[in-house]
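Course assignment 3, question 2. Fill in each field.
Student: A.L.
Task: Predict the tertiary structure for the chain below.
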Amino acid sequence: LPSVYSFDGILVFGLLFICTCAYLKKVPRLNSWLLSEKKGVWGVFYKAAIIGTRLHIAVAASCLAMAFYIVFLK
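Answer field:
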């Protein structure tokens, strides 16, 4: 398992954050509560959700590549 302070850990954290926010965007109650702000600190969640939904193929491919790297190469 990669540590958070390595480059691998930062990539894993970023991918999981984007995937989680994209999933939360599909849940109606959480979407209105968490992703309503588009600016400021809470806007990071909104922007990650937008990245996850618009670039879903690239994010999924990145998740698969990172999983392959962690399981087989590291």
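Instructor remarks: Residues 18 and 48 are 5 Å apart (CA to CA). The chain has a mean pLDDT of 90.
Grade: pending
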